[in-house]
Design goal:
The protein is mainly beta and 132 residues long. The protein has 2 helices and 8 strands; from the N terminus they run E-H-E-H-E-E-E-E-E-E. The longest helix is centred in the middle third of the chain and has 7 residues, at 49-55. It is globular and about 35 Å long. The termini are far apart.
Length: 132
């Protein structure tokens, strides 16, 4: 099995390299637990309305930016729901999934692990709900 740069959708898959310690059975863990286990960025491209409601996504803060490229480091875990836009997020050297861009788009639910450094390459202006 090839290295997976991120976990996606309901068919969660874990990579098999030593840098990704979560086994294939990780689908029983919550997104926050996956991020805390030193995993790459978590992306669910089809979150259910029930899940989004249970997370209280509509009450979270919002953030957005235009088309640009910039470095970023999360100080704490961040959960996000992408309202619009497209971005490639590439973890820096030494991070889980280093050098492998993660594609994030409108409708995706993501968990970004605290302490991760990366580069954002925004292709279409981003607007998101976020919670730290």
């Amino acid at each position: 099995m090839a290295h997976k740069p991120f976990l996606a959708g309901k068919n969660l898959q874990a990579c098999t390299t030593t840098r990704c310690p979560v086994p294939l059975r990780a689908s029983r863990r919550t997104p926050t637990a996956l991020a805390a286990a030193n995993k790459p960025i978590f992306v669910d491209s089809n979150p259910s309305e029930d899940f989004l409601k249970s997370e209280g996504v509509k009450q979270w803060g919002t953030w957005g930016c235009g088309v640009e490229k910039f470095p970023w480091t999360w100080s704490v875990d961040e959960k996000a729901y992408i309202l619009e836009g497209e971005v490639y997020i590439t973890p820096n050297e030494g991070e889980p999934g280093a050098g492998q861009p993660v594609y994030v788009k409108k409708g995706d639910y993501c968990v970004f692990p605290g302490g991760m450094s990366c580069t954002w390459d925004v292709k279409k202006p981003i607007n998101k709900h976020f919670n730290m």
